[in-house]
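User: I'm putting together a teaching handout on how sequence relates to shape, and I'd like one worked example. Could you take Enolase from Arthrobacter nitrophenolicus, show the sequence you're using, and then write out its predicted structure as tokens right after it?

Assistant: Happy to. First the sequence, then the structure tokens directly below it.
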Amino acid sequence: MKIERIEAIPYEIPYVKPLKFASGEVTTADHVLLRIHTDTGIIGQADIPPRPYTYGETQASIVAVINSIFAPALIGMDPFRRHAVQQVLRRTVHNNTAKGGIDIALWDIIGQATGNSVWSLLGGYAPSMRVSHMLGFKEPEVLLEEAQRFGSEYGVTTFKLKVGRRPIALDIEACRVLREGLGDDVELYLDANRGWTANEALEVLRRTEGLGLSFLEEPCDAREAMGRRRLVEKSSIPIVGDESVPTSGDVSRELLSGGCNAICIKTARSGFTEAQEILGLSTGMGVDVYMGNQIDTQIGTIATIVFGAAHEATSRRAGELSNFLDMADDLLADPLVIRDGRIDVPEGPGVGARIDDDKLAFYRLDGAPKA
């Protein structure tokens, strides 16, 4: 089997409401659907989310690097030779989500070719994943209402609170209102998206002591190395690396330097192959991991579920799997369902994301992709 052709298809689907976080916001899912065609007729697919404020990638840059650099180098290669493909991709620096999408699509091909689900090929540990829902920058009482609705409607009992974009006092008040309103049985953790300094993060931890927070994710920029190390040493809860750890090498740097002591894994930027390296490194060093969200579509969410549910360590905690509910539509032919706080692993060979071609035709961009 050989790779015959690679398509990078830009498309746009609006969000029902803007999604805001300390490092930016999105109003439209201006993603790229990747399709890798083989000479046997099997097509591997993946969804690629551009995040210019995090990794420097735009929709236009993803399409360009795939069409001009990656596709010419990969056409003619055997898709089963994943590590040989990885070496080709690593010749080009950065472009994390473009590389991640290619790897996921190759796994999709391998699963289809062998008649196996990628979930089972990766390990097949659990048939579903527990869901964590992200709460954004709203008044504390509105956040509480949203969390209570997700609890009653979907059975969700784990929530990530986005912080770091407004005065610290408001973030602290939101933590207090959520804990008092949801009770002690609901898990809460914070994500500052590099929005604070290390000293500000220490102040927040001091003032939220006793609220039972599980994690603090990416509180400050990784370049604040001494501050991050001091924060990890003084914090009573794990400090999670996210934007600072897209590759296994980055994970090694942050863990060994003391910049974090827990890891958020995102398949959109790591694919499955690099995510396995990150997971093995993390579990070998005895640090907590959980599956994060790159503001993924349902297609991207399936990839997160497939990887997260395949491994014991990533199945222990809820994965961030609900952002697609904020989209006005999706390309997936068989929509995901959150039931009793969980999403099932899709059945069938490959990754399991079946595209509605009519929707793709409607949302795809015929002209030049957005810069």
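A couple of points you could highlight for students: Residues 3-115 form a domain with the Enolase-like; domain 1 fold (CATH 3.30.390.10). The two ends are 35 Å apart (CA to CA).
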